[in-house]
Every structure is written in structure tokens, then in C-alpha cells.
Amino acid sequence: MQILTPHVYWAQRHGEIFLRVELSDATNVDIRLMEDNTLQFRAQGHGAKGDNQYEFSLEFLEPVKPEIHQKSTQRQVDIKIKKREERWWQRLTLREKKPVFLGPDFDRWLDESDAEVELQAKEKINKISVESRVRKDPYLGLKKGYLFMYNLVQFLGFSWIFVNMTVRLVILGQDSFYDTFHTAADMMYFCQMMAVLEVINPLLGLVKTKFFPAMIQVAGRNVILFVIFGSLEEMQNKAVVFFVFYLWSTIEIFRYPFYMLACIDTEWKLLTWLRYSLWIPLYPLGVVAEAVAVIQSLPIFDETRLFSIPLPSVLGRSLSFSYTLQLYLVLMFLGLFINFRHLYKQRRRRYRSRKKKVQ
Question: Most Cβ neighbours (<10 Å): which of 87, 142, 181, 271?
Fold first, then answer.
């Protein structure tokens, strides 16, 4: 029995190679991909010169995946091979000169532009298919409406604080540092009590934000606002209040409108950049300002014995609340590290996905 070469026809897509071997009633089909990226084919069947042993080999232009899908019918052998990288090849084989037995498969043949249109159509169909299988949330509109209103209210509240403090700073200069609490505390109380919802929303599945970073930020700010500033009149006239409130409100007047627009599937590129970039200098500065406030409050708590824990007479009078605040200072910078890492991952994931869309 002679060893002959069959007629082979090929076509491609961005991610696949199709081969059609003109060999009817093929038996003992053996298809192998060698280490040098060469496909070897052996089979017995009826080809152009009758019943014989047929063989051929093709060294591909670029690497392909080792999985080979083949299907033998009464008329031909169909082979499908996936490219390792999804891109268009200028030719099939490494050698520029085309083998004599190889020709284009006009039944499958598409040029590059037509293949891209086909690929986009398939992706669109797949997307529609996936969306149709996902069960729509009947309360989605209500959830988005609630989140939109929450972010709007918080944006308006922090905007009032920011504008009020900015105007007073321009008019009064440094004198505005010392009465910030009395002019902005009520609105800050309202906003920070509302912010407790940011801890509840992840638990209810309303937002994808992680619970722990949200809890750290809300709890930390409320300790500063209600415990340090709210309970000590001596702290309310200090300049550190201005810097804490101003840094908080500067961050939030960009964060809340970003989330507000996201509820209606709208994006403003400048706002997105500010949302994912301003925290880099402002968040550490805010924590430093909070730490200064805690340090300034320590002697006041020691003197007033406020929130001190009574102890038996054998051990002493009481345990000062300042010791708790000193431990809180350590936890504050640990929370800074956790939240900073969380925000950095958010920023990197955001702009990595945007680069992929551009490519």
C-alpha cells in the first residue's frame, strides 16, 4: 500500500483553525501535535488516488493549543485547533511557500474584517443569552432609587459643610478655625448618623462594597465626632476640628455624586478620576488630623475623668478613658492600612478594566 498525501483545505477565525481533509471512509485516524508546533496526520481511507495510507504534516505559523478536535464522516475528516493567542494569521504555515496539497476552504473562508463582524455578533448573542438566563430583580428599581436618594442627601449635606467652611475661611481667615464645631456640627451629626446605612447596605446585599472597610471608616469617624468632639467642650474650640471636618467633606463631595450617578448608569470621567485619586493624599491627612484630635483630648479625659471605669479601692480610683484612646490610636493606623489597601485595589481594578475595554 502506497503512502500518499490527501488534499487539505483550511480556514481560520481569530481564535481557531479549521482543516478539512478530503478522505472518505477514513479509519485508523492518528492526529498528533509535535513539540515543534507541527501537526502530523495519518489515516487509511479513500482519497484522490483510491484506497491508500494517507499522511501529511503542517508546521503552523504560531503556537496552538494541544487540544485537537476531529470528526470523521463518510466524506471527509474535519479538524479544529485553537490558537494559543486570539489574533489573525497572515498564513497557515511557518514557511511562506504554501504546500501543494493545501488550499483554502471556501465554505468556511472569511477575510479578517468579516471574521471580526462574525465574532462581534457571537459575543452579542452570548451576552443576550447570559442576560436572559439571569433572573431580573423585581425590586431593582426600588433599590437604585433608595441608593440614589441616599447618596444625593449625603452629597448635599457634605456640600453644605464644605461651602460653609470655605466661605467662612475666606471671610474670617484663621478665626474661622475656632468656631467650626458650632457652625457645622449639626449637619455633620446628621451626615454621620446617616452614614451608618453604609454599614447596613452591604449586609442587605444592596451594594457590592465590603462590610469591614465601611465599618472601619464609619465607626472611626463617629468616635472622633461624638466622643472626642461631642462630649468635650474643651475640644470644640480647637483648630483641629476645622481640619478634620474640611478633609472629611472634601472627600465626600466627590465620592457621593460618583455613586449617585452610578445608580443611573451614568459616568463622568473627571468625577471618576477624582473619586479614585483624591483619597490618596486626603485619606492619610484625615487620619493624621483625627490622631491629633485624639492626642489633644488625652489630658482632658485624664483631668475630667469622663468615661473612666471605676476600680476597687485596692487597685485605685478609676481607669482613665485615655488608655482606651491610646489603644484606639494604634487601631486607627491599622485601619488606615486596611482601608488604604482596599481603596488601592479598587482603583487598580477600575483602571485595569478600563484599559482592557480600550484595547
Answer: 181
Q: What is the DSSP string of 242-278?
A: HHHHHHHHHHHHHHHHHHHHHTTT---HHHHHHHHHT
User: DSSP secondary-structure letter at 36?
Assistant: T
The predicted structure's pLDDT at residue 133: 61
What gap in Å lies between CA 10 and CA 20, rounded to an integer? Answer: 6
Among candidate residues 22, 198, 252, 290, the one labeled active-site is 290
Rounded Cα gap, residues 66 and 37, in angstroms: 9
Annotated catalytic residue 276? no
Residue 358 has a pLDDT of 42
Low-confidence residues in the chain, pLDDT < 50: 355-359
- pLDDT of 292 reads 96
Cell of 37: 508546533
Strands 50-59 and 3-4: parallel
State the catalytic residue, choosing from 146, 178, 283, 351: 283
pLDDT at 125: 72
Chain centroid offset of residue 231 CA: 40
In the annotation, is 96 catalytic?
no
pLDDT at 165: 96
C-alpha cell read off for 236: 470644640
How much is the pTM?
0.60
- Of 135, 350, 168, nearest to 258 by C-alpha is 350
Cβ(235)–Cβ(228) under 8 Å? yes
